[in-house]
Amino acid sequence: MPGAPGGMPVIAPMPAARPARVPSQRDTDEAAAAGTTVDHLTETYRAHYRSLLGLAALLLDDTASCEDVVQEAFIRVHSARKRVRDPEKTLAYLRQTVVNLSRSALRRRILGLKLLSKPMPDMASAEEGAYDLLERDSLIQAMKGLQRRQREVLVLRYFADMTEAQVAETLGVSIGSVKAYGSRGIAALRVAMGAAA
């Protein structure tokens, strides 16, 4: 190292630093358009995966659903990362997406439970429905042609599912009368329905 007069070592001066460049509006717009980077999003996701899973677990009840929600949140934020203008808000976006997806999952479950709690009707074909309608209309017409007591006994016995004793008590007649009115009524219905066919 060459020395200066007087035996002191010479220290080369530091090169002059470039003047700091003031970011232009264009730079700010480009950064905003770029949004958060994939690397930053991935790092944030990895670092906070357990806390995001815990958040989903508070809202949902099974681990598989929680994992699905957290992974779906990452995919959604990844797709919309250009909207995350401030990289510091990446975690907030992930958390909000986890909450929204958990709500949606709960809504779907509640709707599914409501639908499952109602028995599904046995759907007949159009032809069967039309045939049933015609048969019911024929039966109603045939019932109108019966004597009043016969009609009352048959309606109470077969449509109201009453026993013969209950029908007798309701109409104020004997059980023998209920049997007689019932058998005559059925015989008259067979004739009427056979004639209608």
Automatic annotation (TrEMBL):
What is a single Pfam family found in this protein's UniProt entry?
Answer: Sigma70_r4_2
For the RNA polymerase sigma-70 region domain, which residue ranges apply? 45-109
Domain of life from the UniProt record: Bacteria
Q: Domain named RNA polymerase sigma factor 70 region 4 type: which ranges?
A: 137-189
Region (Disordered) spans which residues? Answer: 1-35
List UniProt keywords, sorted A-Z.
DNA-binding, Sigma factor, Transcription, Transcription regulation
Residue ranges, compositional bias (Low complexity): 8-23
> InterPro entries, from UniProt?
RNA_pol_sigma-70-like (IPR039425), RNA_pol_sigma-70_dom (IPR014284), RNA_pol_sigma-E_actinobac (IPR014325), RNA_pol_sigma70_r2 (IPR007627), RNA_pol_sigma70_r4_t2 (IPR013249), RNA_pol_sigma_r2 (IPR013325), RNA_pol_sigma_r3/r4-like (IPR013324), WH-like_DNA-bd_sf (IPR036388)
What NCBIfam families does the database record attribute to this sequence?
A: SigE-fam_strep, sigma70-ECF
| Similarity field | Belongs to the sigma-70 factor family. ECF subfamily.
User: What is the protein name for this chain?
Assistant: SigE family RNA polymerase sigma factor
The protein's organism comes out as Streptomyces phaeoluteigriseus
